Amino acid sequence: MLFSGKQRKEQKIEQLLTENYNRYYRLAMSYVHNEADAADIVQNGAYRAILHSAELKREEYAATWLYRIMLNEIFRGLRNSVQDTFEELGEDGPWEPAARDAGIEHACENADLRRALDAMTPEDKAVIELRFFEEQKLEEIAVILEENVSTVKSRLYRGLKKLRVELGDA
Hints:
Helix content is 71%, strand content 0%. The protein is built from 7 helices and no strands. The chain has 2 domains: 98 residues, Orthogonal Bundle (Rna Polymerase Sigma Factor, Chain: A), CATH 1.10.1740.10; 67 residues, Arc Repressor Mutant, subunit A. The radius of gyration is 17 Å and the shape is globular. The protein is mostly helical.
């Protein structure tokens, strides 16, 4: 039985979602620190990926395409969470995701490292997470984040320098 390009892409996306669900969940948890929110993020990302699977131009980039979708969902979730917090406080206007003290359970048990990672901008943290915890290559990270490789390298080195300073290893 032959599948159309759309069906083949959808099957590839579903296969990758199934195989990598735990990776996407850990990535989401490292940002939101709440099991229910992380699960919602991955579910929303999976839904969007399947819904838009026909938009995937080349199947060999399906894995990085999915990471991009998951990161976009994470960032959307962070924006909504911070916006809800400001609304509860009766404040509005421009806002940035706040640093949090909760930990990254999958990364390590070191509370100082967790706090240092959480204090980073979401974009810098994403580079470190993808490089060291998801073992992505710099070129893959650039595709996922839709940035050029030199920007990814700058974010990585800047992030590592911040971690060294925060952890007292400078």
